[in-house]
Records
---
Amino acid sequence: MNEAELPLPPKGFLGHLKAIGPGIILASLSIGAGEWFLFPAMIVKYGPMLMWTAAVGCILQAVLGAESMKYTIYCGQPIHQAYMKLGKPIAWAWAWALLLFIPVMWPGWAAASATAIAALQLGRLPGPADKTLVLVWAIALLVLSLVILHVGTKIQRTLEIVNWPIVLMVIILVGVAVIAGVPASAWAEVAKGFIAPGFPRGANWFIIAAAIAYLPAGFGFNMMLSSYARDKGWGMGAKVGYIPAIVGGKKVKLLAKEVPFAISEENLKRWKGWLNTVRVDAWIVMSLLTFITVFMTSVMTYGLLVPRGLAPVGFKVAAVQAEALADVLGPSAWFIVLFGGFWMLFGTQFGLMDAVSRVITDNFWLASNKVRDMCGDDPRKFYYAVLYLLFAVAMVLLIGMIGFGWARPYELAAIGANLGLFALVVAYPLQIVVNYKFLPKELRPSVVTTILLALGTVWYGIFLTGIMLQTLAGIRL
């Protein structure tokens, strides 16, 4: 096979199932973010009228995710390689580093997962007197997250192996809990939010924008998906290389150039086969699974808390749900909800640590000869330098947040989600430019896809405008 020939796509159901990878990693990130407590917190405060926003977000992000991975299929490189053709590459690298590092450095997920496991240990939600216990668990989980990212041939493959059981277990646990413990009327009420949409006037945009930004994945997810697609070896990504782990991996030459396939009848036939893999991963694994999960968690929240007149915020949503479900199903429900919540949130923490470290590594690796020379053509050196920096900053913030009461886990997670809106607003128009400027005409998307990408810009632009007006001018739309 020469360099201009596109590798054969997966064949049959088992072939596509084996090829799935990027979407399951992003599904794990999203289930532990918006679906577990950001979105349910919004529903319990404002009601099911906002459920329609979940459907819109899942559709728009599925479109962007699929389009970004198509670029990797075509030339082997992640989508940020294309962005660098639009200006100075190193400027793009610094811009994306800031847009992604700042929202993710807040260790809200480690703190939230520590709260869950401490609640399991104590048999109640931890209070101020239990902050040392929560801090110890949070530090241990942050360290464990770091350890996970050191093991495996490919870091991407390690994340797949860890995240598959997490996602499946969480869906099963939540499904059993909501089917057994929530009345049918709650299902109907929440479902009405899709056919009778609404939007509360004068609402708190900090809560709403955070919930919507992380559904299903959030800021920079398109770059994460395309990077995982390259490391998975999709399409021409098989000819470019990947980021290996320190323990179990070996030095791999990660190319900084594109390796596009030639436009031929055979390659176009293979391209269509790869598109099926992309669609399964983006539409079904990432978006549909997270949509089903957020629907179930919203039903559970609305059905259990609203009848009791409860409207908790942040991780207290999960704890109060566990208590309410225990009243219906018995003490085992407390364990089920918090155990599922722990794995959701913990998976999000180490997933975000990898995703941001890899996207920053990719950007500087592609943009700078000096970086590649400095690292001796071993991308692990730069990747782990970024990872250790992220870990150190997160550790300081974690100690300050829990030990000195700087902020609560929900506030940190919501701050990160809202800051991530900047990256989302930029990603959609950039994808349109990439599709029509750098893809051969035979590979360009349909008009419908382009319209949806344009709508994505408007959609996230509205929420970014709302949160900025509220934050900077005190105006609530």
---
Amino acid sequence: PAVPGYLGEFGAEVIKVELPGAGDTMRSVTPYGTFWKNASIGQMPQNHNKFHLGLDVRTSTGAEIFRRLAQRCDVVVENLLAGTMDRWGIGYEQLKEANPKIIYIALNGFGQWGAYSEGRASYDAVAQTVSGLLATTGFPGRLPLKTGVFIGDYFGAQMGALSVLAALHYRDRTGKGQFIEFSQGEGLMRLLDWSWIYYYLEKYNRPRTGNRDLAICPSDVFLCKDGPVALAAGSEEEFKGVCQAMGQPELAENPRFADLLTRLKDENAVALLEIIAEWAKGKTVAEVDQLGCQYGFAASPILDAKDQYESPHFRARASVFEYEDPIYGKMVEVGSPAKLSKTPGRLKWANKPVGLDNEFILRKFLGLRTFQIDALAEKKIIGKWVVNPPGRKPPDDWDGKAGMVL
């Protein structure tokens, strides 16, 4: 769902289609079961700038409406189990008949073909395991650690958005649409940098090494008097800077640490990191951060959401982005990391209740009149939110108009 959200930040007109009433099951996914103004906090980062249509595509009439919408669209994005859209009559081959130039991207855990493609559900945690990412995270002798965020969902969405742009470029040159197939787990495989090539050449799996980098030394997380700090030095000049900052410039001349390739040998790396760890114990995080700037090596405190929220740096760059949502009021979210000089990304709204834009979408794109829309609602082909489960309806103080395009 984040694929069209990213595209919507840069001007794409996006329609989110979900079942009437309860809508997308992901509306119930929210941290600690917390809902804010009747909305799922977990949904907001995925639904930027989307119009919301509550449409039962499982019915023949609903599927026909979807096909008619596809005739007017450039791109269709879906993330259901393989074959689901085909069974509903709105898969790629069916939509291509209605719109030969359509670009259709299907994203799910294991892809549309292959031994794992049928009958297997996938969530982010599963994608992290099958991708091999979990095999590289955590400390030796302990359970692997998955990342604390939905990295498979969001990284896969970025790769998916990139593939959509590539397909649009191809269509601009040839006039032809195409089918894009994307596996969540395979998307994360692209994050494994040198792990695959290393296995191919050495027949040796990359071990779990905690925060220690196996290709740069020193690069690790160290505990200071008041908290952890990340420190890294990739060049010889940067390493000399670390040694000077520690008051031990002679370390740079030590045969065990004289150059990067020597430092990367396991026994040398362990010894060097222990020296830095002992030094860091006597410093504050701010002191190490300042020494990094002074001596030219990389150092940073471990920032959390509170730190970023209050950061003048991120606010000045609109990476912490404040805007006025028409339904939910003041919102502060992570802005686009891509800072385009002519066409910067923009957040206009975070999320909408189920079916809020039914009338607008059906009028604008299909030319339906009020009596036709009412008939569809009467037959439950289209619909809006329900009260329960939570996460579907507007805020309790909603005025009945805010957020609607009239």
